Amino acid sequence: MKSDLTFITNEENKNLLERFNVLIKDTQFFDVLVGYFYTSGFYAIYKTLEKTDKIRILIGIGTNRQTVDLIQQTLQFSHAEIKEQFSDTVAGEMENSEDSKQIEEGVIKFLEWLRNGKLEIKAYPTEDIHAKLYIMTFVEGDRDIGRVITGSSNFTQAGLVDNLEFNVELKTRSDYEFALQKFNELWENAVDVKERYIETIQKRTWLNNTITPYELYLKFLYEYFKDEISQTGEVFFKYVPTEFKRLEYQEQAVLNTKKILEEYGGVFISDVVGLGKTYISAMLANQLDGRTLVIAPPVLLEKNNPGSWPNIFSDFKAPADFESLGKLDQLVNRGTEKYKNIFIDEAHRFRTETNITYEKLAQVCRGKRIALVTATPFNNTPGDILSQIKLFQKARKSTIPNLPDLETFFSKLEKRLKGLDRQRDHNEYIKVTKENSKAIREKVLKYLMVRRTRTEIESFFGKDLKKQGLKFPEVADPEAVFYELNDEEDKIFNATIVLIVQKFKYARYTPLLYYIGEKLDQLEIQSQKNMGRFMKILLVKRLESSFYAFKNSISRFITSYERFLKEFENGNVYVSKKYTNKIFELLEVDDEEAIERLIAEEKAQKYPAKDFKKEFKEDLEHDLNILKEVKKLWDKVQRDPKLLKFLEMLFSSVILKKNKLIVFTESKETAEYVAGNIQKKFTDEVLSFTGKSSATVRDKVIENFDANARFPKDDYRILITTEVLSEGVNLHRSNLVINYDIPWNPTRLMQRVGRINRVDTDFDKIYTFNFFPTKQSNDQIKLKEAAESKIHAFITLLGIDARLLTEGELIESHELFNRLISKKTITGEDEGEESELKYLQIIKDIRDNEPDLFSKIKRLPKKARTSRQCQVFNGQVRKDNPPLPPFSKGGMGGFNQLLTYFRKGKLQKFFLVGNGKPEELDFISAAKLLESEADTKREKLGKDFYELLEKNKQAFTFATIEEIPEIKTKKW
Known about the structure:
Blueprint: E1 7-8, H1 16-24, E2 27-34, E3 54-59, H2 65-74, H3 79-95, H4 101-116, E4 119-123, E5 133-138, E6 146-151, H5 157-162, E7 167-170, H6 173-188, E8 191-192, H7 194-204, H8 213-224, H9 226-229, H10 248-264, E9 266-269, H11 277-287, E10 291-296, H12 309-315, E11 321-324, H13 328-334, E12 339-345, H14 356-365, E13 369-373, H15 382-389, H16 406-417, H17 426-448, E14 449-450, H18 454-467, E15 474-475, E16 479-485, H19 487-503, H20 522-545, H21 547-569, E17 572-575, H22 580-588, H23 592-599, E18 605-608, H24 614-635, H25 641-652, H26 654-658, E19 661-664, H27 668-681, E20 686-689, H28 695-705, E21 718-721, E22 736-739, H29 746-753, E23 765-775, H30 780-798, H31 802-805, H32 813-820, H33 823-827, H34 837-849, H35 851-859, E24 871-873, E25 876-878, E26 898-904, E27 907-913, E28 919-921, H36 923-930, H37 945-959
Parallel strand pairs: 2-3, 3-4, 9-13, 9-14, 10-11, 10-12, 12-13, 15-23, 16-23, 19-21, 19-22, 20-21, 22-23
Antiparallel strand pairs: 1-7, 2-5, 4-8, 5-6, 6-7, 17-18, 24-25, 26-27, 27-28
Helix pairs in contact: 3-7, 10-11, 13-14, 16-17, 19-20, 19-24, 19-30, 20-21, 21-24, 30-32, 34-35
């Protein structure tokens, strides 16, 4: 059946575009009247128009509802308004156009024909045009004078091909002449927008070929930091304490934390220690509506502690209630409905969901805005940070960009570590752990956390600090202090490590692992294993802490084993399952005696001895023999080289003789032992503080060592304390910390020194001394090597249990020593992260000092592009070799590479592609690649630009698929 070409509906492969291509090839003049003319669709017919003499395009300017309303109000646009509206329309069209070589070629041809007069374009000023009219005038002597197509199709991809349309082709002369007459009448009264069109394409769209690498670099920074640099609000102070210094970096943190809090329901306030997180929190609380609750450790709630939460909030007149971490039960019972905002200090304590305290805290936090205050939110496994995030985000329905399912995201990270042995697969384990940390920072914490280091504050807020008369003290490199073991002591020390780590089975503390009665659940089994591991770590730490504490621990272990075996002979085994969590808490505060009391508690569940494997008694007796062997070895040791070294330092070191000293140890017994011995030499100068100390002693600590004490005294010069003072108390009347024990987790070193390394200290320099065991030698290098060897022995022999020693932080044995003598560890900057603040400051400086350039940068179009010469290897620009064009072929890796910046809502991603598959980059890496000078020359884009762009677009799409369980890797 013969087709009727009178009607064109885009059905059955007979679309308007195909009909145009048939008719236009014989056309001398082509006139178009439409409401919408998308230049980006011009590529579809421009080749057919090559032989056409003249093209006239008349468009309406009513491209949206707002424009239609404006026309109805004013009836007529001025010519300037028409041109401006037209320019906006063209810019908007190109912004949303597809990215293809064909579209670019079509637009370039459109511009060429505008310039040479072959094509004219006008906009109609007085009414919104709804007509769609296409007039084709054939060359003289053709079949007839011309054709008219009219109907529903605009000159767009949808109108020409995709949509179901209804168009009619008119073939009679009268129809042609009527249409042409009406077109000419409208054309006569229309506004010529040729120049504005050319200007718009060249300046306001991605076809702008004058954008320099430097301008695009600044545009990249502007778009990335748009929210930060557009913040115009100021911190509103209800009240400012007398002599309080309004610091720019703190106020900036308040603005940022408030924004995050309102957007995500929670925020991590995680500046490194000593930058005033409590002050920032008080200022933030004053910006929030609703009642506020602060949950903190008891020491941080005491009224006699100048830096406590109640005191700081009172200074700022920020209303709040305060509750101790240990009283969550009472808090839940009272109800927390009246609170809208909850601040949780030392939030890193809640890294695990497997304890009752966390469950109670989760109840308290439900439905509230949560501010988690911690300098160390992420330290161990990916699950650590998830537990804290779940206090304010739904794990399966989060509002974090592109991460609706946090459980799946974190479980995938954990899965990557499973099957890797920390010792056997150490390098791979380290690699995966670092990759996991980076993924968490880039995909999660960047949206939820405010964290700055001292270096960042000094670099980017230095002018304000100087204006306020403040400066951070210089942090000296920590000094290693070697206490030397003689040959016999060294032999005993080394033998003991092997005995307590490898030979000793800790059967006394893991009885249920030998139980053959009722089957245990997995949690009970794991709990028993953990108990054995923790007791092993306790002995290891005591050995390094002090010979005195270690000998006492061995004696208590022997007594405990003897009692346990005696009871076993009587047919009974006591297991205190319900106190397991309490025991772990006591381990944290170094209350070993209370642990033994709890373990020996007769209220514990009683099991018949016959229900245990026969190996149980054998292992108990084996352990007791090991303990007695260890005791026998240490009975030979009569001197204390560590204490002797410390006393020598106190008498010989100029710094130690004139300053107040803070001495940290993890052992209460060590603290009391050292204090007692030092007191004999420095009468009335020594104060000891442990978890057992009274409130009166705490008052003495504050009066003598806190520079902000209301009633300062000078009764004591040397403070010897346990970990209980490593957080939340200012001790900055001193500028010197001595770590009597090895701080196995470098984070503890940062926290300890953070007590004296405060922004308001009067000291110019901070000193740190760390004790290490070593073998006697006259050679300093050999002393260091022997010390490193002992650390290596501890960590290597412990194997997987080394994570308990370092509190979960992944550290290679040879690396730990170096980190403990690095000032970067003290300042909290040893994570190896580079700061985004550098780049924020660059665009801020442009905004403040070059307003014209900043205005130009803001106006640069989306999808802007440029090209420059550089060598890129492994995602980094090589600056040590002669440059190669990035789009050249051949040479030293001279293939084209393309970096693309994608944004979808609040999600931002960066992809780099060259001759392989696309690689996702973090912001810092992308910024380094784009970094350019003002005089960097723009190069011509490579021919494979669109091919590379398509690869990056596919990679972005693939990366933003929402948590599909299994996706096959795409092959490039």
